[in-house]
Design goal:
The protein has helices spanning about 1-10, 25-30, 35-40, 45, 60-65, 80-90, 95-105, 110-115, 150-165, 180, 195-200, 225-230, 240-245, 265-270, 285-300, 320-335, 350, 360-365, 370-385, and strands at about 135-140, 170, 210, 215, 250-255, 275-280, 310-315. The chain is an alpha/beta fold and about 375 residues long.
Length: about 375
């Protein structure tokens, strides 16, 4: 009993360490490899975490690893010497003993050193705020009825936007090339046109010419574009993909469409987010609105859910006739606020300006015809700001 009491008296106090959920898993891993301590050249104190395999030599006393003093094979005569021997070894030269042990044995990582940092120690980098990218408003001017001033409206409204300080691109999607001719460019002499963009995926920047406004020119080749695109995958989105290259360079993109609801017009409606419908103030011209609405509904359901009618524009208005007044009243009764307050009245200047290869705002800047489209531009911009 005396020997046991003395042994317990000088036994080292147990080290209380804060346990971690993964410590037990590390201990099981050490038990699975019992000979790791001896294979690494470490003392038995490090391999004591796992069981010793059968047939291995007995481990040396713990005192060798802790103090570096080899205990005698036989116990000394006096019990005091058994107690004082390790004490004297520790007090004699503790610095030398610990230094020699540190030089002889490599440092071993504790389980806590192998643990990943806690969630409180992880430095979370703040994400940089995304800067919104300005994209152009794409406006398609569409009506399957011909001769309703689609080309005139596309050009003059675009120039009115440019006068207000906006960057504008016009796209001539009509195989007749009237918008191209209205800027003094011969469609028969252009080397590259929208046909190459839609059919051969040429960058649209290569066909843009700079006049009063920037214009993507057309040629008579566009008449065969629908046939050439018939086997192309995603043919309805050809223009939309082409506009991605220059969408950030402009505030407005104005698209002049052919007088039909074919593949070229569908490309325009798929690429656009707004549609302006020029309507001649006559009964036959207004009948086409129903067909256009049905086509637009199919576009919204299958290709472009964001496209909407910006407004219906009464054009070629002759206020001297009762029929024209009745036509405007029918539009307002059926479409309400969709009808623009601006009216484009008949004027000979609209026919004279294309002969000079310019818009009416440049040809007769102080005339009434130019004022009609300046008023329309203010109304559209007011809708935009609202």
């Amino acid at each position: 009993m005396g020997f046991l009491s003395r042994k317990n008296k000088f036994a080292p106090a147990p080290v209380v360490e804060e346990t971690h959920p993964i410590v037990e898993e590390l201990a099981e891993m050490e038990e699975a490899v019992p000979e790791r301590g001896r294979q690494d050249g470490q003392g038995p104190a490090e391999s004591a975490a796992g069981p010793v395999a059968a047939g291995d030599p007995p481990p040396p006393p713990v005192a060798e690893a802790s103090s570096g003093v080899v205990p005698p094979t036989a116990p000394p005569a006096g019990e005091a010497e058994v107690v004082d021997a390790p004490v004297r070894a520790e007090t004699a030269s503790p610095g030398v003993e610990k230094a020699s042990v540190a030089e002889r044995e490599p440092e071993r990582f504790m389980p806590r050193d192998l643990l990943a940092p806690s969630r409180h120690e992880v430095v979370v980098e703040e994400a940089e705020p995304e800067v919104p990218v300005k994209h152009a408003d794409v406006i398609a001017f569409a009506n399957q009825k011909g001769g309703v001033a689609k080309t005139t409206t596309t050009l003059n409204l675009a120039v009115a936007f440019a006068e207000s300080g906006h960057r504008v691109l016009c796209i001539d999607l009509d195989p007749q090339g009237n918008l191209t001719m209205s800027q003094g460019i011969d469609p028969d002499k252009v080397e590259k046109s929208l046909y190459d963009v839609l059919v051969h995926d040429m960058p649209i920047s290569e066909i843009i010419q700079h006049r009063e406004i920037d214009i993507a020119v057309a040629s008579i080749d566009l008449a065969g574009a629908e046939i050439a695109m018939s086997t192309k995958i995603g043919r309805e989105r050809s223009l939309e993909k082409a506009l991605k290259e220059v969408s950030g360079d402009y505030d407005f993109v104005c698209i002049d469409t052919p007088p039909s609801l074919g593949l070229l017009t569908i490309n325009a409606l798929t690429a656009a987010n707004k549609v302006i419908v020029p309507v001649q103030c006559e009964y036959l011209s207004m009948r086409g609105l129903v067909q256009l609405q049905n086509t637009l509904k199919m576009i919204q359901e299958n290709l472009n859910p964001d496209v909407k009618i910006e407004g219906i524009l009464p054009t070629m208005l002759d206020t001297r006739t009762v029929h024209a007044k009745e036509a405007v009243e029918i539009l307002e009764e059926n479409f309400g606020d969709l009808v623009f307050k601006s009216r484009i009245r008949k004027a000979i200047k609209f026919a004279e300006a294309p002969v000079k290869g310019s818009s009416v705002l440049k040809y007769d800047p102080q005339g009434n015809a130019a004022g009609y489209y300046r008023d329309l531009a203010k109304e559209v911009l007011a809708h935009e700001s609202a």
